[in-house]
Amino acid sequence: MSVYSETFAKRMAMAGLKPHHRIVLGVSGGPDSMALCVLTATWKTNSLGIASQKNEFVDGLLAVVVDHGLRAESKDEANLVHRRVTSMGIKCEISCCEWSESKPKQGHLQEAARQKRYEILQSACIRHQIGVLMTAHHADDQAELFILRLSRNSGVLGLSGMAFVSQLFSTRPDLSAEATGKGLLLVRPLLEFSKEDMYKICDGANQEWVEDPTNRSTLFARNRIRMILTDLASPIFRSELQALIAACRRTRLDVDKICSNLMHQTVTIMPEGYAAIDLGILSPPELKDIVLSKFIALLLQFVSQRQRPVRGSASKLLLDYIRTSPCKTAVTASGCYLCPAPGSKGTKVLVCCSTGADLPLEMLNPSLTEGENCSISNEVEQIVANGRSYSDQFPQSTLGMQFLDLTSSDSVLTEAKREGILGESTYKSIISLQREESDNFKSKTNIVLEKKVEHKVEYTASAPSEVLHPEKVGYFMNRFIVKWNLSKQNAYTSFSMNNSNQLQEFGEERWNFCNSCVLGHDQVSRVRYMVDADWLYLATLSKREDRSSVHEELPLSAESRVMSNVNLCSACIKKSAERALLLLKSIPVAARRALPVLVNVEGLLLSIPSVGFQHCPCLVASAIFKPKVPLGGGYNSFL
């Protein structure tokens, strides 16, 4: 137990964690999570010099048991685990899954349960203002994931497995001005421990555990792989497989560092939500495919805010595009539109969010999101700094560098054998495992495809905009915080600047008309992306000498009906359109198309908040670019 405790303490230091840091533990009640409870409680109490006493909880430690509700006995099991964890001196709470729709089907059960579990654990961290979440993944879990990804032909970065430390970001952005977007830290301190170690730790601490029967079901790929790996569990096989995983992780560590440096040196993020890459500084021809592919993927994931991997033909298309210098064409891939930056002669590339996808608008509650993460951001920032400082103490290893030129899972195995990382016996066993699970995966995929062919679904076009009420806050495409309201003071100020001779006319009657002239009496707006017609409409407004000109040009449109009723607003609208056009000229066309705009129920343009256009002086709207996940995807450590 002393050796286990010493190793655990070292891993915690590598993560940047110290005993005074507050931690949430994800606990299932199995041997892995119970071992994590034992080691974490011991680390905290020993380091802080606090005597373990009955009826007292370890300071700064909270265990969360998630009851998925997928088995009849899950509630009783959760209560049993709660009692066991509490008896260890660890404060514990049970959280139950609420399935908004039906419970997940058998084929997707583990994936759906995992997603729900992490949502609950993140929520617990935020609710208790704790910045660190720890889970009990260990070396055997890494081995299972390695074989699983190998069977899906993952490259060396995918084969590096789970990160030792990574950042999790809330599904809701923090609306406070002080928010730094540090998110939470997910730490896996047991990745150097084996499954056998988990049992020994529990036995050494006289701790009982529960066994989940679903872990024995061969319906799930991980379970099948686990059973086969158990049969192959010779010391040599385990050692060589872990050595190969370690080499992949060192490669991942190096690639991540290179990409992080390149992001800071070559990428400029604009407040309108697009990015510019300086190809001269990036020098794509000098970068290895693995580095450039990762760099592009990280940038596209940031701009689109879709955390999906960029693989296969899309990755190759983007590599060829970035390496073509000077850049003269445009390309759409992975939710983004890439094109040469105007005036750069192809030496810079713009990355803009593509508008061909759905337009989700999530409603936010300021009372729940404002400042919810501020109190933990500083602590997370300090832990990350500690972790970076620890990793910087070690010189860059040449081990794993030989994998930088490899493009497939087969080439990784071949190189590992050539370098002596894998012996002949281990190599053949891994190849056999890979083929078997790959066949299972292909068979399952074919069945799914056949079902899709048999049951075609007719899709109808979705609405081009989403409703947003006044004083409410919307989160548009995980990118922009959008809100609007009506302000009598704002209208008064606008009229005083543009219509001083008519200011006396601004009375209560005028206010009542003005605040409904474009919104209608329902006072509802909708949010969508900017389209080319919006630019043309602004040009029409800016050129108008009097309200009749627009009336003549658009006799049957919604615009003409509104304009005929507007008197005092005319000068304000004209000035607003002129200013907006001037600002829009400085924004590339591709980037304009991803800007959020407000329209009324008839589709009339109300506001382009990013350039300050308001169709009515009473209207006050804003759109702030605040992506959920930061550039680079946040902090990751593969130590």
TrEMBL record:
UniProt GO molecular function: ATP binding; tRNA(Ile)-lysidine synthase activity
UniProt keyword tRNA-binding, yes or no: no
One Pfam family this sequence matches: ATP_bind_3
Keywords of this entry: ATP-binding, Ligase, Nucleotide-binding, tRNA processing
SUPFAM superfamilies to which the protein is assigned, alphabetical: Adenine nucleotide alpha hydrolases-like
Gene3D superfamilies in the record: HUPs
Residues in tRNA(Ile)-lysidine/2-thiocytidine synthase N-terminal domain copies: 23-226
Organism listed in the record: Anisodus tanguticus
Keyword field contains Transmembrane: no
The protein's name in its UniProt record: tRNA(Ile)-lysidine synthetase
Catalytic activity line of the entry: cytidine(34) in tRNA(Ile2) + L-lysine + ATP = lysidine(34) in tRNA(Ile2) + AMP + diphosphate + H(+)
GO aspect biological process, one term: tRNA processing
Documented EC number(s): 6.3.4.19
